Amino acid sequence: MDCRGGCGACCIVISISSPIPGMPGGKPAGVPCVHLTTEYKCGLFGKPERPAVCRNLQPSEDMCGSSNEEAFELLEALEKATKLPTLDPR
């Protein structure tokens, strides 16, 4: 499956814990990557500085669904399901 044009869900919805050029602390969920272009494409695609986590993420129907809206819903559910619980500081 190829990436759907104009989507960018994986560059917005999911969190990335590893450093990204311009985002040394990683990328929080729901925050667009600083390299997401106005065409919703990765500005680092094909470049050596693109993080391995991004290079290894491959579009699939399970992740992308059949529309941009479905991709956001699927990835939001995946992000929630894989999020580690936070400790109560009390």
Automatic annotation (TrEMBL):
Top-level taxon: Bacteria
Pfam families assigned: CxxCxxCC
Q: What is this protein called?
A: YkgJ family cysteine cluster protein
- Lineage per the UniProt record: Bacteria, Bacillati, Bacillota, Bacilli, Bacillales
